[in-house]
Amino acid sequence: xxxxxxxxxxxxxxxxxxxxxxxxxxxxxxxxxxxxxxxxxxxxxxxxxxxxxxxxxxxxxxxxxxxxxxxxxxxxxxxxxxxxxxxxxxxxxxxxxxxxxxxxxxxxxxxxxxxxxxxxxxxxxxxxxxxxxxxxxxxxxxxxxxxxxxxxxxxxxxxxxxxxxxxxxxxxxxxxxxxxxxxxxxxxxxxxxxxxxxxxxxxxxxxxxxxxxxxxxxxxxxxxxxxxxxxxxxxxxxxxxx
Amino acid sequence: xxxxxxxxxxxxxxxxxxxxxxxxxxxxxxxxxxxxxxxxxxxxxxxxxxxxxxxxxxxxxxxxxxxxxxxxxxxxxxxxxxxxxxxxxxxxxxxxxxxxxxxxxxxxxxxxxxxxxxxxxxxxxxxxxxxxxxxxxxxxxxxxxxxxxxxxxxxxxxxxxxxxxxxxxxxxxxxxxxxxxxxxxxxxxxxxxxxxxxxxxxxxxxxxxxxxxxxxxxxxxxxxxxxxxxxxxxxxxxxxxxxxxxxxxxxxxxxxxxxxxxxxxxxxxxxxxxxxxxxxxxxxxxxxxxxxxxxxxxxxxxxxxxxxxxxxxxxxxxxxxxxxxxxxxxxxxxxxxxxxxxxxxxxxxxxxxxxxxxxxxxxxxxxxxxxxxxxxxxxxxxxxxxxxxxxxxxxxxxxxxxxxxxxxxxxxxxxxxxxxxxxxxxxxxxxxxxxxxxxxxxxxxxxxxxxxxxxxxxxxxxxxxxxxxxxxx
Amino acid sequence: xxxxxxxxxxxxxxxxxxxxxxxxxxxxxxxxxxxxxxxxxxxxxxxxxxxxxxxxxxxxxxxxxxxxxxxxxxxxxxxxxxxxxxxxxxxxxxxxxxxxxxxxxxxxxxxxxxxxxxxxxxxxxxxxxxxxxxxxxxxxxxxxxxxxxxxxxxxxxxxxxxxxxxxxxxxxxxxxxxxxxxxxxxxxxxxxxxxxxxxxxxxxxxxxxxxxxxxxxxxxxxxxxxxxxxxxxxxxxxxxxxxxxxxxxxxxxxxxx
Lengths: 242, 473, 257
Description:
heterotrimer; A: 242 residues; alpha/beta; Rossmann fold; 2 domains; four-stranded parallel sheet; 13 helices; 8 strands; C: 257 residues; six-stranded parallel sheet; four-stranded mixed sheet
């Protein structure tokens, strides 16, 4: 099973540990992992900004890079959603590209979804100990149905105690460029999320998207919360020593 | 109504800074959301199948809207209704004031009609000497607050506290100030009852038009819709051309969706299906019924990539569940319709260039899409509007060039790797050894309200290449 | 989008009946002053033309679609619905209570006035008001009630009505306006008492409409009202208050013979 890891541009830039965590998990699940060298970004920022031409160009690159592999796995519901749901839409009029996009969409998975579907009884190698609360990212949840998968995997870890927060399915306020265009509105939304996290008293809020991480961690710290850790699910599952 | 949608960013900022409003919004925030969730959970059928059926009913009509309109019109006329058309808000005003003058009306009681807001009808009525009286309690509160526009399509005054309403009532009614909500409601009831009894004309919206019977369906909880359509001798319905449903059975299906999605009720208190005028020997009901079917931008959506929006049944679920609406309230949106549906409709009805912010004032979280009772893909439509803005050259130059430059770079992996290495080093330099950046001078928006987590060190691809090399050695 | 065709103006004008308000308003120069500048067809024709243009309407597609519409209008199929209640009466009782109606059961129509009297006494409510002319034949006076058989007016505090039928699914009563069953009686008074024969309780709105078609044919009464409990509002701080513009209370007297 040859799995192509789509690292995502934010992981590449800010938290490479998440990428290596995903790598470790996929290998532990028995996959032969490949990291295609020409990958950059899935094009979602351009797509959401209305720049369809740029989005198409970047989508074409991703398709080129991952076409020969059995699967594409990304440690992000947002990027996986872009590839799985929106790539085929992007090529509505170009039948040849649409077919290629659909073929890739069929083989594209978000990391936890993939591990639950194909990872058997994978025992996460991570050694995290403490209480965590899980934030469901919007794209993962509502585009891909990522809900029980991360919880199921976290449930296999003896040291992890999951406490659900109220409103775990509510948006964190990031929204890509939204958080830059309307930083005040974005922060006010994130404040509610931070409040919900704090109420649980969890040691860490765990999530599956770096965008949400930027929003929540950035706001928690700005509000003076130095205690609550913000971790990607791959970091918890794989261990932070990756 | 004059649109202020161009000023979303500023208005949103004002709303965030309004502490009283923020308190009021915080109190109301979860109520509609919880009510819908409970109603959907308690529904003993398949709610998702119901949503699909709702979508199907609305689509069926839109596919042949011209002929459904003709069918409705013919059957409504056969029962004595006068069916009129208005191309825009101005025509609505001219028709309604014309009807008022023909019947010598000096006071009109109104049940909620968002189209009347689109048209700015109250001002037009006042100008010709007809006193318009809003009778939905929320609309009434807004009217006596110096005609402030509604902030929600179902609960127009939900941004106000009881204290604020108490002040308004004391001022408008000239009675001792009350803060007990049932007592306040009774006081308004008594004031408005006088108006119901003395008005010559009733104006209402229409939730649905039923082609089969030529009827207008009206859904209310307060009973003001019934008053307005029963007591005055003239009843004027103002509604959009897209509001038609084929049959009474379709109304039954949609009525399982509308109240559950909006207020979280299994059914609204009053569903009135009104057909024609007072009959032979009838002891109540209007002698004259006018149905004004309004375009005001709707026809241009038919057959377009935005046609899905015409399915909307105005339940309010999208705004109730929208994180942005929940945060800034309805007035920030600047026109008649707030929240996600407003962010789609405002640019479509008032011009793409007149509401540049609105399609961007959304996180695309799709909470609206999953609660919409007729499955309107709202985030998709917002994205399409963003595309139209780009195509029309309406985005700021910096944004356009920035996006294109970034996409150009992202298509050149070697150059991209080099650039990301530099960026990571620059960010780490900014962090000054800390795990976060507090102020990012080149892009101040990023750190205006939150810290920016510092990169871990090197880029993934840099480290990965390094590890492969060491692994191979 | 397509605008009005060249013949739109005349065709549009022709569709308006002479002497209507629309005609008056049209003559008053509405169109001449319009944004399009000059005579551009009636609003009706122009709007319909826009829609036709957008849909790519042709005479063939028109004929086909009209046939589809005719077929759709007589089709009695319905959308997905909750499973039918095993016991309609029980479901009606439960749902009407959820909508804040109260309910009492009697075993004959003749027992209704006593039941209404009991209810009003227990609630300390006035004993006079209006009743639907269709129920005027019951002996209200013997039960100590003064009910006038007419529509309701301001000052009437109790309205006693019958119903066309009732719906178990939502605890709703359906009333149809007619000279013998005026709509105001269930609306203006602060207390609405409604007589519901158990035999007229149907599953849901679909059955209610079916019954209406059987009894009224195609001509629906002017006002069909589906009433589910007392009027209410949540417009101040989203606090639910019973008794907005309509009744404060709805009491159902169910007749189960």
